Amino acid sequence: MVKRGFNPNTFNGLLLGAKRLKAASRFFHDGSHGLALDLRSFSIVIRGCIERGELHKASRLLEQLEGSGRKPDVFMYTAFIHAFCKVGEVGEAERVFGKVKDVGLLPNEVTYTVMINGCFRKGLKARGFELFDEMRGNGLIPNLYAYNTLICQYCRDGDLVSAFELFDEMGHKDIACNVVTYNTLLLGFCRQRKLSEAQRFLDRMKKAGIRPSAATFNTLIDGFCKAGRMSKAKEMLAQMKAAGCPPNCVTYNSLIGGFSRCSNLVGVAECYREMKERGLTPTKVTYTILTNAFAEGNDMDKAFDMFNSMGKAGLEADVCTYGVLINGLCREGNMKDASKLFRSMLDNKLKPNDVIYNMMIYGYCREGSSYRAWRLLKEMRENGMVPNVASYRQTARALCRDRKWEEAEALISEMAISGFEPGDSIYRALSNAMAETSSCT
């Protein structure tokens, strides 16, 4: 390459100019022969590999760079830590984090922040808090993203006191909060149903000059909907519109779900109509909530209309959607259609979960089909699921009513082995079934 008149700066420019990573990577490997590549050459291609998710290829290049005697900087190591955390490989991220110290570099606030966030996302809370303390112990000032990460974790844990201690600390250290900071704390209030405090905090947010986003209003609307306070949810919707934030699918999904929980099908229909009038395309979540709303309202025709509309929109129903319909059919005693729908899940390569199995068992027991319930309970266990105590008791009682006391006795024994208490009524039912059978012989 030197003979051709290239120098490292020219070569790096060509690397940056390569539009596609594969072309740049090929150019890198072809051009590196005879040219003493610098740290920037490696950095350009390594970062390109990371952006494409080719972490193993990037790691090989890093090893090549380290083996050449050149020292990667903390920014390159941080890019690797962030990439590994992003795909959930926190162990690999920890390995690279340890290497930063081993080569004599000091992790900066970004390095610590991405590592802390990765730990929290993986459920390694103790390690995340430990890194935050280590970060401050090393004299580094946490940045906005670090504070938001910690506040988010405290809110998830329901520890609003600690979350607000960090919020106040940000103010003392002149670190400006952003809309994410406020939204996170609002969500913390809503999760604990502290809705009055959430409203006051919204006012505080506005006074601080932070403009509420769609996510801000959606958080509060969802909070009021889950608390069944639909008039307040509608007030917040009006505020959202007045603030110039158009409601989105998330907004209407919350409202439809709220009206559904309040058994207000008129409110459900109005929200759905307004959603379509605004040109919003219902999502899989929207259709599932609507299907559930009508099923809970004992309007299975409309529930199936929503289910069919979902298919026409090119959306595939998931286990949750099927569960909603099967539950409605079982409740109204339509086990023929419930059974068809249950089996159609398998045709569509969907595996019914334990909740759906328990629904079906309940429906069959209620119908008096003890054998079908018993067979389904057996199938459930064969698929590695554990029936709940209600399914065991209902099936045992149904078997006893049909004088199938041997199957009932075996089921009661299995129930006890699984750690469930059959109860005196089940033992009495078994005793009666045995006595009735013997008197008939």
Automatic annotation (TrEMBL):
- Please report the residue spans annotated as repeat (PPR): 38-72, 73-107, 108-142, 143-177, 178-212, 213-247, 248-282, 283-317, 318-352, 353-387, 388-422
Q: Which Pfam families match?
A: PPR, PPR_1, PPR_2
Q: What keywords appear on the UniProt entry? A: Repeat
Please indicate if the UniProt record lists Cell membrane as a keyword. no
Transmembrane parts of this sequence: none
Q: Which InterPro entries match?
A: PPR_rpt, TPR-like_helical_dom_sf
Tell me what this protein is called.
Answer: Pentatricopeptide repeat-containing protein
Instruction: Tell me which species this is from.
Output: Colocasia esculenta (Wild taro)
